[in-house]
Every structure is written in structure tokens, then in C-alpha cells.
Amino acid sequence: MLWAPQGRYLNVLDPVFMATPYPEHHLAWSRVWSGVEPDVPLVLVDALSSELLAYSVVRQKDPLLPRLVADPRFVSNPDRVRNRA
Q1: Alpha-carbon distance 40 to 17, whole Å?
Q2: Cβ contacts of residue 47 below 8 Å, gap of 6+?
Q3: Which has the closest alpha carbon to 67: 26, 39, 28?
Q4: Using CA atoms, how far apart are residues 53 and 75, in angstroms rounded to an integer?
Q5: What spatial distance separates the first Cα and last Cα of the chain, rounded to whole Å?
Q6: Which of 19, 47, 58, 84 lies at a CB distance of 3.0 to 4.6 Å from 26, suitable for a disulfide?
Q7: If DSSP codes are grouped into helix, strand and coil, which group holds residue 29?
Q8: Measured distance CA(27)–CA(76) in Å, rounded
Q9: Within 13 A of 55's CA, how many CA atoms are on the CB side?
């Protein structure tokens, strides 16, 4: 087992396993990804206990993309993920 105390680990939120045991988290997750949630960073931190959002901009018609682009609290950093070995 590897251990890195300085590391940040991504805990993936899967809606399939979230819906039944954590309905309030599933609702927050659904509102974020559907683009309905007006304050995405607040919901990520408060409701989902997450500081990171792994998101692909390949789907240009996605309703979440305009919210992320317009919010100065989001920083896009694709190289950060690609360059880690």
C-alpha cells in the first residue's frame, strides 16, 4: 500500500451508488450536473464535501459548461491531471 500524506485523493461520486443511501447528496449531484444549480462551488463544498470537479469540456452543449466558464472560482487546469505520473 502506498501512502502520501501530502497527496490529494479524488473520491469519485457515482450516482448509481449514491441515490438510495444518500438521496440528498444525489439531488445535489443531479442539480450540479444538469446545470440547474446556480452556485456550483458552494454545493460542491457544502453538500458534496469536494474541492475538485473533474469535468470534460468535450460535450460543448452541456448545460454545466456555461456556469463553470462564467464562475471565477473555477480554474481549469487540464495539464495538472495529464502530467502526473
Answers
A1: 21
A2: 24, 25, 28
A3: 39
A4: 10
A5: 17
A6: 19
A7: helix
A8: 25
A9: 24
Main-chain phi, psi angles of 19, to 5 degrees: -60, -50
**Residues contacting residue 51 through CB under 8 Å, at least 6 positions apart:** 44, 45
Q: How many residues does the chain have?
A: 85
Q: Fill in the amino acid letter for 70.
A: A
Dist. CA 10–CA 8, nearest whole Å = 7
Question: Hey, what's the cell of 66?
Answer: 456555461
pTM for this predicted structure? 0.69
Cβ-based neighbour number of residue 44 at 10 Å: 21
What is the per-residue pLDDT across 2-58, written as a single tens digit (0 to 9) for each?
Answer: 666 666 555 566 777 788 888 998 999 999 988 899 999 999 999 988 888 877 767
Tell the residue number behind the cell numbers 458534496, with chain if given: 48
- Separation in Å, CA 50 to CA 54, 59, 60, 81: 11, 23, 24, 17
